[in-house]
Amino acid sequence: MLKTLIDIVIEASSLMLTDDFKITEKDGISNIVTSSDIAVQEFLRNRLSTLLPDSGFLCEEEDAHDLSHEYVWIIDPIDGTANYARGIRECGICVGLRHYTNMELAVIYLPRTDELFTAERGKGAFLHHPHLPVKEARGGTSKQLHVSERPFSECIMFTALSLYHKEYARISSEVIYDVFMQCNDIRRFGSAASELCYLAKGVCELFFEYILSPWDFAAASLILEEAGGVLCDLEGNPLDHTKPSGILAANSQENLDRLIVIVKKKIK
Predict the structure, then answer these.
(1) What is the residue-wise DSSP string for 47-98?
(2) Positions of the chain with pLDDT lower than 70, given as ranges
(3) CA gap 251, 82 in Å, rounded
(4) Class assignment of domain 152-267?
(5) pLDDT tens figures, 14-37
(6) Could you state, in order of their start, the residue ranges of all structural domains in the chain?
(7) Cys bridge to 56: 46, 66, 116, 224, which one at CB 3.0-4.6 A?
């Protein structure tokens, strides 16, 4: 099923690769949706319903929230919509398959960078470049992912100031400051799924967001776990992939534990 899912996601990405899209606001200028988001989601729902009949869907757009099934597809048609609308390359399609309480399959494709991240529970996480000729690919067009081994003092953390809930900006900034004073540096790409995949890739080591929707992190969480990373909510508890949650992630349990301590001091 993973190979078929990859083919479906790559096909759906053609609906992103256009300059002819319309932008509308959902809850003000900070939260927008494009006609490409809607087109990608509709395409995925149609194809995945055929691939796995009687499966449910939890999607970002158009209130597609049906969890009353053994299998549920969790979809963000374009994670990083603001990036997409502005021509920034960190944006992509996220599809995860949940079986009861476990994420089993994940595919995230960033078409503007031609980075395809995949994972299947118990079988590892991989990065593919589906449109890169083999002769131009250093080390091939696919490779298995693994997080870095950097200690906290050498870590780079991906983070944000809770764009859709600016009431959490101050506490988020306090967490970011404390981490920044103990780690190497901070980054923000504007796409949580991309950032978690880059953590899996080993180019950064920490992640903090005060609140995210499940479609922002569900697929990426499996990719990171299969690459050797660890995730939890702000209290250090396992993630529920069906509800909004704060997200902490790291390349090692030691670094995650240290991040949890910093965050708990600010949110108590």
Answers:
(1) HHHHHSTT-EEEESSTT-EE--SSEEEEEEEEESHHHHHHT-S--EEEEEEE
(2) 27-30, 62-63, 133-140
(3) 27
(4) alpha beta
(5) 999 988 899 988 766 667 899 999
(6) 2-144, 152-267
(7) 66
Rounded Cα–Cα distance for residues 18 and 60 (Å): 21
The overall longest dimension of the chain from CA atoms, in Å, is 54
Report the alpha-carbon distance of residue 172 to residue 266 in Å, rounded.
9
Give the count of alpha carbons within 13 A of 132, CB side only.
18
**Would you put residue 29 in left (φ > 0), alpha (ψ -120 to 50) or beta?**
alpha
Both ends of the chain: CA-CA distance in Å? 43
Return mean pLDDT, the chain. 93
Structure tokens given for 12: 């759906």
| Domain 2-144 shares a fold with domain 152-267 | no
Residue 164: φ, ψ to 5°: -85, -10
Contacts of 38 by beta carbon, 8 Å cutoff, 6+ apart: 61, 62, 77
Q: Which of 100, 126, 31, 119 is nearest to 241 (CA)?
A: 100
Dihedral sign of CA atoms 111, 90, 3, 8 in order? negative
Question: For residue 94, which of 70, 59, 62 has the smallest C-alpha distance?
Answer: 59
Q: Are 219 and 93 in contact (CB under 8 A)?
A: no
Non-local CB neighbours of 141 within 8 Å, separated by 6+ positions: 128, 129, 130, 132, 134
Q: Name the amino acid, one letter, at 7.
A: D
**What architecture (CATH level 2) is domain 2-144?**
2-Layer Sandwich (3.30)
- pLDDT tens digits along 157-185: 999 998 778 888 999 999 999 999 999 99
The whole model's pTM is what?
A: 0.93
With beta carbons less than 8 A apart as the criterion, state whether 214 and 245 touch: yes
* DSSP single-letter state for residue 174: H
